[in-house]
Design a protein that fits this description.
The chain has 65 residues and is an all-alpha fold. The chain has one domain. α1 crosses α2. The relative contact order is 0.22.
């Protein structure tokens, strides 16, 4: 069973992973198509402030930071 704080941390970790995919210094030899897909996934990905606000309003789903 996934706990709300685990769900919250998973979203944040995924954002970090996608950002790392965009940086050739952090992830060398990643094909351009993968970097492009990571960029498009991040275009409307929730920011920390969005996640923190929804966590306050829906603690049973997102838990606390």
């Amino acid at each position: 069973m996934t706990l709300p704080n685990e769900r919250f941390n998973s979203i944040k970790s995924t954002r970090t992973f996608l950002h790392d995919l965009l940086d050739p210094k952090k992830t060398p030899r990643v094909p351009r198509i993968i970097r492009t897909r990571a960029y498009w996934c991040l275009r409307h990905y929730p920011w920390d402030m969005n996640m923190e606000e929804t966590a306050k309003k829906l603690p049973g789903i997102w838990g606390k930071k």
